[in-house]
């Protein structure tokens, strides 16, 4: 008896590495659902790509952008060592069913003779005690590159992860104000089986720090069970301190405005450092 092996035929994604490639591809691609990333893709990114493929079905294509944006890094060492894994990224995008990967060079996005505007920052970007306090200038770079890619690609919709909660609120507010025709879709955080939020930076954790990093998701889950935001903040700080994790912030904020809690949906957010690695995570608060 002969057995025919199942043949899985995957249509390779188009790899576009310049604005010229993009223009040629865009001429016939129809509606685009865009997945912005800095590459080094993992299962968290893959969930965004699969959502993009679903949203594009029957009315266009899903395109993944892979670009390590220099203007959003305030630490040159962090930028220099950001992982680059383009071939593996292209393979993941093929498996997930994307039609194209746009991976331009920095001079394509920031030509030396052209000033790329930095949009004014939505107020969510500069809330005290959050990202701006620890990564000044970061959201200016994020807003700049997002608007630049939106104008190059002109997507119908773009998918972002809730893992970067503040970024999602900033991009939502800027897009609503500056490019209201583009829909922003948020996707839940994908975690490792032990709870650690997936991140391209996890690969840099020393073995002992990988274990310590679990205190971040543990602190968020524990904080979801206490009664007031102030108690939740104290509980998160103490869980992180006990684990020997350096806390940048551990706070409960309004989920949309990122102000100190009033009424409505709230979010617990943590940024922490393990050696040279900075990790962020967040959950809905309270969780029960
Ligand atoms: P990055 O490449 O890390 O800049 O992330 C690109 C996009 O993927 C952003 O919208 C992130 O919020 C999202 N993302 C990163 N990690 C995860 C994760 N673990 N789960 C879901 N989305 C993620």
Main sheet: strand order: 1-4-3-2-5-6
Helix- and strand-based class?
alpha/beta
Superfamily (CATH H level) name of the largest domain: HUPs
Number of domains: 2
What string gives the helices and strands in order?
EHEHEHHEHHHEHEHHHEEE
Instruction: Output the number of helix runs.
Output: 11
Question: Based on CA inertia axes, which overall geometry fits?
Answer: globular
Supply the CATH architecture of the largest domain.
Answer: 3-Layer(aba) Sandwich
Distance from first to last alpha carbon: 57 Å
What small ligands are held by the chains?
Answer: adenosine monophosphate
**What's the Cα radius of gyration?**
20 Å
Quick check: average pLDDT? 95
- Tally of extended strands? 9
How is this structure best described in words?
It is a single chain. The protein is an alpha/beta fold and 288 residues long. Helices cover 38% and strands 20% of the residues. It has two domains: 2-187, 3-Layer(aba) Sandwich (Rossmann fold); 202-282, Pantoate-beta-alanine ligase, C-terminal domain (Pantoate--beta-alanine Ligase, Chain: A,domain 2, 2-Layer Sandwich). Strand 2, helix 2 and strand 3 form a beta-alpha-beta unit. The chain binds adenosine monophosphate. Adenosine monophosphate binds next to helix 2 and strand 5.
Protein topology:
Blueprint: E1 14-16, H1 19-29, E2 31-37, H2 43-56, E3 60-66, H3 76-80, H4 86-96, E4 100-102, H5 106-109, H6 131-134, H7 138-153, E5 157-161, H8 165-178, E6 183-187, H9 207-212, H10 214-223, H11 229-242, E7 246-254, E8 266-274, E9 277-285
Parallel strand pairs: 1-4, 2-3, 2-5, 3-4, 5-6
Antiparallel strand pairs: 7-8, 8-9
Helix pairs in contact: 7-8, 10-11
The protein binds adenosine monophosphate (AMP).
